[in-house]
């Protein structure tokens, strides 16, 4: 369990949420031991540990922070809620700078309470991106708009397809706003391959994430992402597709899954890395 | 509780599954009492009651059978499973004729075990429709391809959007194959309004169904359809949209919901009819 994982892990990154049972120092140590070069971090555990201390920890271990999760939640209509959301996103951008990552993952937010108006909510996301994009760009941070599976459209993210995410991103320079290609959210969409090619050609694939699709989904559907290789998604085909679109960056595995969180964190991390080699390369 | 529901119910139809706690005779009797002119029936309870007896029951009550649910499940690759599915669909078409309905709702089926190939599964659906469409057309029955929400793509229906359903239907004459517009499955999709307009212009909206979207979704996600008016879907806007596309047929409410099934069936039926008037007209 202690040695390096065999296979080419040069592009592999583990999203912190996948192994949230590990503390940040445990995660960093295990990555070094297994030969894992990248991590995607989450704001809450990073802030609990201390942003500067976390930055030092990963830097000293030679780890690359591939993404920070997450900004967004930009659909509020009321001016106060809206201003608070923009402030929080600027803080997230600053945290990216401190952690040395160039990519902030953006989850747009769901319908505001009582609203049934998806187009209006999407337009508020666009307007908020317009305020945040220059701030991010000046700091060398790219906003990566993540489409979430349509089952999250009402309560978490009104941006449901890669096409929608890309249409938002295309209003801004590519070095300011791009998209996340996450197999879990888009695998079902027959238009997603074309959108991925277009995003790649524009240099707008700012993050590529892998998760598999398994059923039955658990109550609330949030924590049922499949361990890679166990589900319905052709992960290798997606990796090849994104590569063919010109993407050469890190490949992050992000799973939310109660069953996986009940496992030993290091054993799970090793399993995920080995499965990455077996199913995605 | 016993009188007619006030408001214009002339296009209203109750899908049997919505009030499955009612026996077929109870349902028929309650429809007559409340002034509900249409029912969407399901094969299993109809066959349990007897197809001919069920046909007589609804006919004698002056009820219109707006749809029969459901045919489909056409994604199997093995010749025997495929032949069995085709036979079963021909039986469903015959049952439509016996019940006096012109519309068979088609749920295409999920990925066959172990497969990760959505396009191949969709193509098998198209080929199967090619075998069934003339059989249906000769008997005055229209196959209505229903896109199911993308959260069902792996295990229930590889046709996830109205565009995909319409692209399948367009290979055949409109009097043989069309689509189901069900708000539950497509409400999130920014391309669905255009697809609905195209479907209407082609005379291919063969069924229009209402259900609302509520979260959190229950485990397995199948039985969490929202009572109309309680969720995120602008039902009136969808009704107006489908009308504007030229659709003049019945409007069916189809809910699968454990909480609703725990209620008194007649009280629920009345509530649904009243909500239809309030939220969709």
From TrEMBL, chains A, B:
A Pfam family annotated for this UniProt entry: AP_endonuc_2
Residues spanning the signal sequence: none
Name of the protein: Sugar phosphate isomerase/epimerase
Keywords, in A-Z order: Isomerase
InterPro entries found in the cross-reference section: IolE/XylAMocC-like, Xyl_isomerase-like_sf, Xyl_isomerase-like_TIM-brl
Xylose isomerase-like TIM barrel domain ranges (all copies): 28-271
Molecular function GO labels: isomerase activity
Native source organism of the sequence: Streptomyces montanisoli
